[in-house]
Amino acid sequence: MSSTHGTDIKQNSDSSQCITTDERTTPQNNSYFGVLMHLLKSIIGTGVLTLPHAFKESGFVFGIFGTVFVIFLCTYAAYILVYHSQEIRKKSKTKLLGFSDTCALICQHGPEAVQSFSMVFKYGVDAVICIGSLLTNCAFLIFIAQSFHQVFSYWFPHFILSVEQYIIIISVLLLIICQIRELKHLVPFSIFANICLFVGLLLPLVHMFSELHSPADFPAFTSVTKLPLFFGTVFFAADAMILYLPIENTMKNPAKFLGATGALNVSMVIVGILYTLFGLFGFLRYGEDTKPSITLNLPIEEIPSQIVQLMLPISIMLTYVLVTYVMIEIIWNNYLQYKVRGSIKRNLAQIVTRCSLVILTGAVSIAVPKLELVISLVGSVGSSTLILLVPVTLDTIVRWDNDLGYFKWRLFKNILIGIFYVFILVSSILICFQ
């Protein structure tokens, strides 16, 4: 849904040249506009469909300010990550870096007390990315199953399968699709999936404005106990942390990625406006009946709604494959491939790894088939860790010796963000497992 939403940006990790924030002249690098488009494509995804339900959990006034606050935190976190990555690349005269490699290198050049933890930091970030991606695929799987269940139950009222049974059927199909190892083979499917996504997002938007209720009919704020579900959902929808560095690495002039009018700020302003309006008007349209995904509110007896309920799951199935690809890139390339010898054993290990990830997401989805809880769990465990905890930890490490500011205000700021992270993490986990 947002997330790790899938992207065709691939980091050039084999480059041996020193990369700084000076202008890059290789032809494959992207212009300011190209990077802006990549950012918008990476951030805006099916996660936007969950925002009206987030507003339902929080109340419409808190939803507005809360969404803006989360988008601001995401922007600030991305700024910290990219800025320190650019600085450490210049300092160490190293090549293009990914997320976990940036964390490891910053630790290696940080205070002596943390230098020995550089690889622990790298492994920890890789683990969080994999766990978050796994939970994201669980949310995708539940959404696909619920959509198919709604459509086929309407078409065949005398032959109704449960959501759990649809999860099993879809998982079997995904076991086959996820064996595709080269993303280039998915390009034709990706084009079709993007068309499905566009149609699937357009119809709910049109239907949303057909009958809006007055804001006076709904609470401005609901309850503190529901805030973790709100924040988890918005973090889920806005998370693209693992994509910022690969996108920045492709920019012709990296200095234009940051700054007041940089590609990052411009894209996040657009995202903030879109997310706030979509969440608000979606909630004002459906009120207390708002479902975890707004597509589930569409009248199933109408043909266009049935088309959306089929096209969006098809699009999300490809995104599921792309998210699985991210996990395989980390698990296989960084950890497993060096431990398996022989082409037959390596192929078998690849198959087993891919099947294990699909089976695991299916098992978790069956165990917790509530879409809103899984989305909140993804946002609180995976997204918030990458957005809140990791960037402020890097910032503290870099600035620890002599750059914490007057009265160490940067340290206190990072501690406050850390406390907010702990609140989101603990409260969301407690709610999900009640």
TrEMBL record:
Keywords: Membrane, Transmembrane, Transmembrane helix. GO terms for molecular function: L-amino acid transmembrane transporter activity. InterPro entries: AA_transpt_TM. It is a multi-pass membrane protein. The chain crosses the membrane at residues 32-54, 60-83, 127-148, 154-177, 189-207, 227-245, 257-287, 307-328, 348-368, 415-433. Residues 31-430 form the Amino acid transporter transmembrane domain. It is found in: Membrane. One of its GO terms (cellular component) is vacuolar membrane. Residues 1-23 are annotated as: Disordered. This is Amino acid transporter transmembrane domain-containing protein. It comes from Photinus pyralis.
